[in-house]
Amino acid sequence: MRSRSGAARRALGVLGVGALLAASGCLPEEREFEGTVVTFVSADAALAEAVRRVLAAEGSAMAGVEVSVANGTVALSGEVASAAARREAEQAARGVEGVYGVRNELGVSAAGAALARG
Length: 118
Prior knowledge:
The protein is of the alpha/beta class. It is built from 5 helices and 6 strands.
C-alpha cells in the first residue's frame, strides 16, 4: 500500500494550495520512492509560471507571449507589437530569479513593424 509523504499531505492540505497549483499549471507529480509517494512540482513549470506572472504585470503588450522552460532556460515565442516590447519581454524574463538563459524567439507583428518604419 502506497502512502503520501507527510510533507505532501500537509502542503496539499493547506487551504487553496491544490487550487493554486492547478490554476498555475504547475500540477504536482507523484512518484514512489521507497514505498512512499512523493509529491513535487517541476522547477521548470514553477519558473515558467513566475515568468508568465512577470510578463502579465508588464501589461497587454505581452499578451501574445508564450513561455516555455527547459532546464532553467526560458524560451519566449509568439508575437508582440514592437521591437521595444520584444526587448522588454526578454529583460523581464532575465530578471526572474532562477532563469539561467533566455531564447527570444518573439516576432514583431506586421502592424507593429509598419508603425516602427513610419
